[in-house]
Amino acid sequence: MYSSVASAAVYGIEARIIRCEADYSEGLPMFTMVGFLSNEVREAKDRVRTALKNSGFGLKPKHITINLSPADIRKAGTGFDLPVALAVMAASEMIPDNKLNSILVAGELGLNGEVKAIPGILPIVLAAKAEGYTACMVPKDNVMEGAVVEGIDCLGVSTLTEAVRFLVGETSLEPVKVDVEELFKKAMQTYTVDFAEVSGQYAAKRAVEIAVSGQHNILMSGPPGAGKTMIARRIPSIMPSLTFEESMELSRIYSVAGKLDKDHFFMTRRPFRSPHHTATVTGVIGGGVYPTPGEVSLASSGVLFLDEMPEFNREVIEALRQPLEDRHVNISRLSAQYEYPACFMLAASMNPCPCGYYPDRNRCSCTDTMIERYRRHISQPILDRVDLYINVDQTDFEELNGSGGAESSETIRARVEKTMKIQQERYRGLDICFNSQLSASRIKEFCRLGREENLLMKNAFERLELSARGYHRVLKLARTIADMEGSEAISCEHLSEALGYRENVKNP
To answer: pTM of the predicted model, to two decimals?
Structure first.
């Protein structure tokens, strides 16, 4: 007998429908699986056979052939266990296959018949909905994640026996429902840090507000303990709330990476990713033998913070060039091409020298050679992709011991949202949302300068020896500063402030 069960495989953050075909016939007793399979998929036959036995569904010694179609696409992961088991049972007429025609199935099987959680359920359910399936049968620990998708029933099962009893009509499974609006309301109440806790540092906070308003990259330099990390960790608290579309894409990334669970099954807050400086290129950019999203993708719609940026491996820093420009990552493999979003805001910090106290020669003992070597860890092409460079000095005693007065994150966020709204109205109908995303051709349209402003930029271009990329980034930064003041025209004052943040980028 022949049967077929629908499942799915994840590629990048998208899923593709896979048919698990089973043939159960007379012949030499054996269990064969074909269809361009990875090792863990090939091992499914042993898990399935044992799970069926331990669940009380013994198979007669016949010839079993499993094909995962289409056969020209590589299949990886353990999510094919449950559909393979059900396909075999349907082919052997142990269960009817009428219900399986409209259900997509995914899940890993334990040897005792337990259905275990797998990564990538959210894109799998989205693919099932797009293909017209009415329901998805998934592991119970993944059911809340899949239930976020409207328009398709998500059924959770904890054992193979439970799945079989549902398919034969002995029991019913109620679809799980999730109140997404309630999730967003709770998310706004869970910020544990606030800019009101940062004493002084007005120039740094102004620079961060500009950076967030236009989604510009920022690099902070200063001695140890000045507050660089403290400021960076509060950046998400002044960013607007995620939209549902942003949350869905971000949740898909985290789902594929296996970072969602039954308690945190949907992303409702902007991420703040701060990898350690020992992170590898694969860990930061993504990839691996079986490609998974890296930190640049996990930081999408949020902040990627590189603390002590010069301490990172130079290869890691240089690998950021393409994601910073293209806002996505392409991973090429012999069997497939994977694309992951990487639309993040880069925030980085560094010391002015290896010990951190230059130019205070009373405390700094670094030689000029040591300082030069330390700074050269960050190449000029990377610095060219930084929009704001700000010095963060030590806070004096009066500011540190002052009684309040610092603006809260809520107050700053209100201004940021106002500036972002201006940009969204300006770029309505285009494929961009923020000033930092302007291409060279669109800069000429949206960042027009008057005669005096052109003369100022001409002098700055020659004095600062700006590259073409650096010149364009100054204009985009000035556009954001003008938007913050509600000005349609970019003035000399806006350009001067933008140039002030740019002046030290060439030699931090």
So the answer is: 0.90
